[in-house]
Amino acid sequence: MPSYQFNVVGYIQSPYKQKFAIPRQPGLIAEATGYLVLEEDYSDEAILRGIDSFSHLWLLFVFHETADKGWSPMVRPPRLGGNARKGVFATRATFRPNPVGLSVVKLEGVERKNGKLMLKISGIDLLDGTPIIDIKPYLPYSDALPNAAGGFADAAPQTAMTVSFAEQASVFCAQQSQYPDLQVFIEKVLKQDPRPSYKKQREGEQSYGMTLYNYNIKWTVNGEHNHVTEIHQLPE
Ligand code: SAM
User: The TsaA-like domain covers which part of the protein (predicted)?
Assistant: First the structure.
């Protein structure tokens, strides 16, 4: 069987520092903003000429965090509560024969900072450090198919989850001037109910924690309500 090798063209800088709580697809949380920092061999404005006329880009990336975990022909999509099995090629599962992911993201701009050429992007579903193997413009005339059938994932996932913030948590968010959307971002992450399916069936109050940017966020879940109890900055 032939095999091909690809070069990493850049890496993602993302607020998502762990897999837990990343949305299952891009575009679900517009406030999830990050950077695609191009590697030195591709750090040339010529390579991006014309890209700013596109609002969205396709990113092809490596599921680097799980790439060594193998794959199975059948997977249990979280969307189906983890109970039904589907063929891996009928899903967007991370455990695949080739650990390649595909996400459409919004292009916010092109920047050069500290000598590095980077694309500012939003609506991402990518872990910090994700290696990118290709970038292509999104072409609405060909890529947007309003009549396409969406199988078992026919519409964006909906939950009835609500979110409240303890005073310390909202004051903390308001003080982070570099991330003015921080509270809305956290709220949207929690509204999608990132808990694994088996924990959603549990009774009583449960406590959780996650890292976004360099913030540790703690919250409790009771029924369909999330309460953010405290947020702290992690040491550099
Ligand atoms: N939009 C992509 C696709 O369809 O190929 C990704 C879909 S996959 C279901 C989304 C999940 O991938 C996220 O919830 C996150 O947990 C995981 N993920 C994101 N970046 C990753 C990485 N670099 N390595 C492993 N898993 C990653």
Answer: 6-147
